[in-house]
Amino acid sequence: MTYKKILNRVTVAFIALLVFLIIFSNTLATLSAKRVVLEFASRGIITTVDADGTAHTTNHPNVIPLSALHRDGNGHFILYAESVPKRFGSSYHARILRVDVGRRNDTHAAVTPIMGQDMPAYGIITASNEPVFSGERVRIVE
Questions:
Q1: Strands, E assignment, the chain
Q2: CATH tag, 34-140
Q3: What is the DSSP letter of 131?
Q4: What whole-number distance in Å separates Cα of residue 86 and Cα of residue 63?
Q5: What is the mean pLDDT of residues 116-136?
Q6: Is residue 110 within 8 Å of residue 103, measured between CB atoms?
Q7: How far does the chain reach from its first CA to its final CA, in angstroms?
Q8: Do strands 137-140 and 34-39 pair parallel, antiparallel, or not at all (unpaired)?
Q9: Where are the domains of the chain?
Q10: In the predicted model, is pLDDT for residue 31 greater than 60?
Q11: What is the pLDDT of residues 48-67, one digit of tens each?
């Protein structure tokens, strides 16, 4: 074989190895991501009952399950999955959105994003196999 043919074969093998490594690394990262369940905020009616038995019904544009609502030293927040473009497709990362909580009942709460933000276009994280923090890669499961 000539030197040129050997060089071409080595180059092709090297490129194939690089492609394999890129795909394999993306696959490993996806498999190791925390698994999350998503729901979308929806317009809904929240009915609450005061201690004296008075029922209050509120129609609100952003009703979420209580499992999506979290609290820390800075107030209430929700986590949502945001799509991040990658070389081969995209991945999802958890992001935080601070909210004010309105009326709530045993299962749902009416929330309003603070600081002029909008409700996320992507799903709100309602459950996960491990604790999820803002910025972490997540994998959506049904």
A1: 34-39, 42-49, 55-65, 69-72, 75-85, 90-104, 108-113, 124-128, 137-140
A2: 2.40.420
A3: -
A4: 32
A5: 86
A6: yes
A7: 55
A8: parallel
A9: 1-32, 34-140
A10: no
A11: 777 787 887 878 788 889 99
Query: 47: which residues sit within 8 A by CB, 6+ positions away?
Result: 55, 56, 57, 58, 105
pTM of the model as a whole: 0.68
CA nearest neighbour of 111 among 62, 46, 57:
62
Give residue for tokens 């991501």: 33
d(CA 46, CA 92): 30
Tokens standing for 115? 């600081």
Structure tokens at 63: 């009703």
pLDDT by residue (tens digit) across 61-84?
888 899 999 999 999 999 999 988
Q: What is d(CA 83, CA 137) in angstroms, rounded to the nearest whole number?
A: 10
Amino acid at 23: I
